[in-house]
Amino acid sequence: MDINERFEFRDIKPSEGETASEIEQICFPPHEACTRERILERVAAAPEHFMVAIDRKSGCIAGFLNGVATDETVFRDEFFTDISLHDPFGQSVMLVGLDVLPEYRRQGLARAIMNEYIRRESEKGRKYLFLTCLEDKVGMYLDFGFCDNGISSSTWGGEQWHEMVYNIE
């Protein structure tokens, strides 16, 4: 079955915030995962930047991608914690989490979520998507069309991150 037939891609609903928070805890180690409060803040403040992939068969969230719009062009840790930085009209989106539940990994879902997100943000006139990732994920994001800007100033979770950018234009 085609991935776009198997999954529905849409904005998160307010009632799905708790589930997204639980998925975040499954997908990231405790020192990297965003807290329940931060996830719920993003769902409330920027649902249009919080895309979920719904398994059409089960009706459950299989994964999601969420971000914060801004006019800034350098990723900083405050994007994880301060939703007041969100500017719905910003030219950039700082992606703060790509989560795919373990049972849905290695099936192309992360790529499909990213592609749908890029398509949608392109239609909104955005110029850039930024994210940070660990060394072992750089290749995956390069394969998705991102460029590696090198080591990020982000020290989120006490880790060393690469800053990646996708030029939508």
Describe the protein:
With about 170 residues, the chain is an alpha+beta fold. The protein is built from six helices and seven strands; from the N terminus they run αβααββαβαβαββ. It has a seven-stranded mixed sheet. It is globular. The protein starts with a helix and ends with a strand. The model has no long low-confidence stretch (mean pLDDT about 95).
Helical amount among residues, as a percent range? 25-40%
Order of helical and strand elements: HEHHEEHEHEHEE
Gyration radius, to the nearest Å? 15 Å
Strand order of the largest sheet: 1-2-3-4-5-7-6
How many helices in DSSP terms? 6
**Beta strand %:** 25-35%
Which assembly state applies to the chains in this document? single chain
Structure summary, number of beta strands: 7
Structural class: alpha+beta
Terminal CA distance = 32 Å
- Write down the overall geometry: globular
Summary keywords:
single chain, 169 residues, alpha+beta, 6 helices, 7 strands, globular
What's the helix and strand layout?
Elements: H1 3-6, E1 7-11, H2 17-27, H3 36-45, E2 50-55, E3 61-70, H4 78-81, E4 92-100, H5 109-123, E5 128-133, H6 138-143, E6 147-151, E7 162-167
Parallel strand pairs: 4-5
Antiparallel strand pairs: 1-2, 2-3, 3-4, 5-7, 6-7
Helix pairs in contact: 2-3
Concise account of the structure shown:
With 169 residues, the chain is α+β, with helices and mostly antiparallel strands. The protein has 6 helices and 7 strands. Helix 5 links the parallel strand 4 and strand 5.
